[in-house]
Amino acid sequence: MKNETVPENKGTFYELVKRQNAGLWFGILFLAYAVLYFKMSLDIPYHSKLGAGPGMYPRWLSGFSIFIALIYIVQSCTHQVFSMGRSFPGKTELFNVFTVFLACLIFLFLLDVVGFNIAGSLLLFVMFYRQYKMLHAILLSVLITFVHYFIFKVCFSVPLPEKLLSLFGF
After folding, report:
1. Cβ distance 121 to 142 under 8 Å?
2. Is the distance from CB of 118 to CB of 164 less than 8 angstroms?
3. Burial of residue 116, with CB atoms counted within 10 A of its CB: 0-12 exposed, 13-18 middle, 19 or more buried
């Protein structure tokens, strides 16, 4: 009889990713970011005529970030091990995150076209329509947008984009 060794099926790629140490991977990515930031801070002068230069803060911040990242990597491998499977959201939560991201992009594109009030109302409506009844979602989105418009435009005198509703005095 042949001695055939069949490799044990460890599951799909998704299952492999779910078993990985999320803290370790985050620590490695944060360390890489901190090292890159430190390297970029070396191009900025550390001293100026008056003392500390524009490169002092980024250099110290990135050096401190490297130190914190190394401590976090050690802790995530020894004390606080958690898998990525417990870290990632489910399908419903991912859809919610995608919806918010898409709504923010649409808000940015519509802001200069239709103005703050309409773009803000649409943004909030997209976020509210699954959790509230349709009428409540519309009323909340319009009310919150106009309250923010009043606070920033009237109270703080911040210029906000006004396009379509400027015809009605808003």
Report:
1. yes
2. yes
3. buried
Domain termination residue (choose one: 87, 111, 139) = 87
Same domain flag for 109 and 81: no
In 3D, which of 15, 13, 24, 17 has the Cα closest to residue 82? 24
Q: Which residues share a beta bridge with 51?
A: 48
**Stated pTM of the model:** 0.55
Summarised one tens digit per residue, pLDDT across range 51-83 is 888 888 999 999 999 999 999 999 988 887 777
Pairwise CA distance, residues 142 & 123, whole Å? 10
Report the alpha-carbon angle 9-11-16, nearest 5. 125
Q: In total, how many domains does the chain have?
A: 2
